[in-house]
Prior knowledge:
Elements: E1 2-3, E2 15-19, E3 24-26, H1 27-31, E4 36-40, E5 43-44, E6 48-49, E7 53-65, E8 68-82, E9 85-95, E10 99-101, E11 107-108, H2 111-125, H3 135-139, H4 146-156
Antiparallel strand pairs: 1-6, 2-4, 2-7, 3-10, 4-5, 7-8, 8-9, 10-11
Amino acid sequence: MNLEVISWTLDEESDWYLVSAGQVFSSQNIDGGLFTTVFTTDSPAGSIAVGSEFFLGFSTGQSFGAAGPNRDAFGWIELMRSASGLVAGGNAIAYEAGGIVVGTAVSVPEPSTALLLFAGLLGLSSPRQRKITSQSEGLFPCNAPKAMRSTRASRRA
């Protein structure tokens, strides 16, 4: 079966790709050319061969910069061919995320969020230094006034 975009009413910055279950659908993988393009920013890709069951991944953002869309929403939809046409099997979307795992509702954190989490875990796992006070320091602190030290010494005598 071939999939072809004939007409559309989509978000102006919406991009659609042919994806597979279990893949991480993210900006990094989109920019790396991991997925077959179905539709990008008002531009259909043409006819694409698909099986009787397939997934489409979509991404959108809040703005469009010089380098392209600033993607912060990622989703997927499973489509199955039936006698009456295409039927949706399942779908999920992750807002303000770095991506989503296709076929699940698991979002992928943005790289900066993952880095912050890693730094926090590293900080928690580092050993803490503790100052150990000897008993002699507790009885005769070096910074205690001289009169106080002599009073303590006279009590012991």
